[in-house]
Specification:
single chain; alpha/beta
């Protein structure tokens, strides 16, 4: 497929692979389900393949693009299609809660995510999930598989757990390297993450929950009794109390088991940090 005229050069440092297949761009926007009235935020619009179809579909798009060299091309390509608001900034510095408040409601994110920041960017969005109703994003197929993985599989890991706790995950379509410029050396997949009305489990301390998850997957070959030793002085006792075999490994635990394990630890720490008051002390 020929490139759009005068397309700026891609920058390797930002992991740029521009989507140039117009049919696939239209398919992604249709699959995203966005409609007029939605507060659509596009991350990294690049030269505007998705942007043009988003504007045709909804009439208004808020785009965040770090590469200033792309902005003139993006504005020219989308002229007359609708209202395009552009912020030139690092998406990892964007406060989605603030943006949602500014726009008057929850956000719908649509994006071809830069490969080099896809994982931290997904976590950035999940951490601010209350401002985001759904995300339709294109990522490396390997990342998509991690997001949709089930316990006991190789792809199941520290990214899977928080994602599935708070979001439902659906694979929409696979995109070949030929749809991009330059063609990446990996396969790409479009996934949709929709915020759950009720999370799969209820960790009382989300920050501690992530500490437990990261520790469990820090060294995948370690059994949990060893992997979690940095968080508890007696990990075997802690695991047994949670009805989890200390010989198991992190990739075998369900989201609910991680939440239960975290809640037990949070309760124990609270008990230790809160000194009991004797009748004599009360006097």
């Amino acid at each position: 497929m020929p490139l759009p005229p005068r397309l700026p050069a891609t920058k390797k440092k930002w992991g740029q692979h521009f989507l140039i297949d117009d049919t696939i761009a239209r398919t992604i926007v249709t699959a995203s389900g966005v409609k007029p009235g939605d507060r659509v935020v596009e991350i990294g619009p690049g030269p505007g393949a998705l942007t043009t179809w988003l504007l045709r579909t909804t009439g208004e798009v808020w785009a965040v693009e770090l590469d200033g060299d792309l902005l003139p091309h993006l504005q020219q390509r989308t002229a007359g299609l609708g209202t395009l608001h552009i912020q030139q900034r690092d998406i990892l510095q964007v406060d989605f809660h603030q943006l949602a408040q500014q726009l008057g409601g929850e956000l719908c994110i649509v994006a071809n995510l830069p490969y080099n920041i896809s994982t931290p960017l997904l976590m950035h969005c999940i951490e601010q999930r209350s401002a985001i109703s759904r995300m339709t994003v294109m990522v490396q197929t390997e990342v998509a598989e991690r997001l949709a993985a089930t316990p006991g599989t190789k792809a199941y890991g520290a990214l899977t757990i928080p994602c599935q706790l708070w979001m439902s995950v659906e694979t929409l379509l696979h995109v070949p390297p030929t749809a991009f410029h330059p063609p990446p050396k990996v396969q790409s997949t479009v996934i949709q993450l929709v915020r759950r009305t009720t999370p799969l489990a209820t960790p009382h301390d989300p920050a501690l929950f992530m500490q437990v998850v990261r520790a469990a997957f820090g060294q995948r070959r370690k059994i949990l009794a060893n992997a979690l030793g940095t968080l508890h002085h007696a990990p075997r006792s802690w695991l047994t109390q949670a009805h989890i075999d200390p010989q198991r490994r992190g990739e075998t635990l369900s989201v609910a088991e991680f939440a239960n394990l975290t809640n037990l630890l949070a309760t124990e720490r609270l008990r230790i940090d809160t000194p009991s008051t004797s009748p004599q002390d009360a006097c």
